[in-house]
Write the structure tokens for this entry.
Amino acid sequence: MKLAVERRRATLVLIAPALAILLALNLFPIVYALYISVHYWMLARPQPPRFVGLSNYEQLFFDERFRNAVLVSLKFIALAVGTELLLGFGLAFVFNARLRGMATLRKLTLLPSLVMPLVVGLVWFYMFNENFGIVNWIWVMLGGTRVPFLTQGTLALLSIVATDVWQWTPFVMLVFFAALQALPEYVYEAARIDGLSGSQIFFRVTLPLLRPAILIVLIIRAVDALRSLELVFMMTKGGPAGDTEVLPWYLYTTGFMSLDLGYAAAMAVLMLALVTVLSQLFVRQLESRGATP
Amino acid sequence: MSVALIRNKDVQVSATRSHAAWPIGTLRYLIAATFTGFCLFPFYVIVTTALKAETAIFAWPPVWSFQPTLQSFYNALFVFGGRSAVSYLINSIVISAVSTFLAVALGAMAAYGFARFSFAGKGRLAFWILSTRFAPPVAFIVPIYLMVQKVGLLDSHIALILIYTAMNLSLVIWILRGFFAEIPIEIEEAALVDGYSRLQIFWRVAVPLVRPGIVSAAILSAIFSWNEFLYAMVLTQSRAATLPVYLAGFSNSMGLAWGEYMAAGTMAVLPILVFTFALQKYLVRGLTFGAVK
């Protein structure tokens, strides 16, 4: 009896502090965002916020700029994450060999994923420069003429995609590499005994076994790409003419340049809804893999 | 055949020895080395640009051999338009260190609670904590800004410290939960028999046994705090401003102060390079919440 009381007390003491911080800085802000989003709420104005119901959301619905931002974000996520998954998948097979020096190379590829995104934006901004950038120099060496990578619509978005691909392909590769290493050898022996050909083994054995890893890395990358604004901040500021204005950038400028907090909060709420769906998919994936807490 | 060769480890090991397969091994090296080079090249650009004199920075074609100078570092640290990087650097170090300490301390306690005690709603609670990892800062920034403003903590260290603690808690809890669960329960039962209380067992028995997990959770937390941009940008002005805020000032330099900002970028990246090699082993496991080991 005394033991049971002690257990309960210990559980509370251990978990309560972390929980308190998460409730205050994660759950409460979500509720508060909902509250702000139904108000006309301007930053740095003397007038108090005014309740306006759902009009911020209604306004979003007809906002061309918002629609554009959603589209640009979707394009960015699809292109960047798609490329990262394809490249990372292929490279994982390349690195998955017991060859001398391969492990060292693999360790070195880790570095981009840990670098401050703002510095990534800075250095690629420099390399994409029209007048002295190294990317242009290589392009000219190959026989092209100078290209305004960051000031021409589609190219600007593609340049940001390329930068994101540089930073995150190695991470995707490492996840797939770890997943490949964890595949049990006996499955392949069985497949060979059954007389499956190389491509049959790939499509019927390897690919299905890698499905959980593919889903997990897809969700992580999609959510992180959805919220990233450092590259846009550093390289284009959403230009030219909104061609790289991703959703986070529009939200940020609405809140802290136009100072329209109510409208920005409405965007935040929609974004949170989307992220919640994605994170639930992730949780399902983990649960189905037996990661019981 | 080639697919089987690429995937199957047994075949690979013999393939490296057998004569017929050498082109595949060479091809692997070629692709792996090219990819690694691609991953590392921007680091080379950051550091060399920081060491170049101004004329070399703007040179076309790019200059490959030059007389290195520390002028840019000196400027960034001490003279640069009254905006010395030193205080930003100190703020970054203090805020990362304290928030990492808090996240690891509170996270380890909670992780142990989750790994060793059962209570109603535990699974749901643990997965809710996991889902906070996906919280996009840009969707939280409006409510968080108003909260911080209301309690009068704008431009304070403590605000960023608490926010980063909350940001890293899910990571720490989920990494360490796995490590604690792997400790044989008999060790703790023996301590219980010896008259230790539950909390003493946590502190004196369990924590020392999961030291590798604590180290990797701490390094990842420190990197994420160190790199964070949006909260720092919006919530601080000068007194508590961190390195990313300094780097964001590049936009106001009319794109001229490349050397100084690359020098600051070097300072932002170097500590991470050092840490990365320390945590190599658990990185993928940490970044995917144990979904991939």
Observations:
- Chain B touches chain A through 114 residues (CB under 8 Å).
- The two ends of chain B are 29 Å apart (CA to CA).
- Confidence is low (pLDDT under 50) at residues 1-20 of chain B.
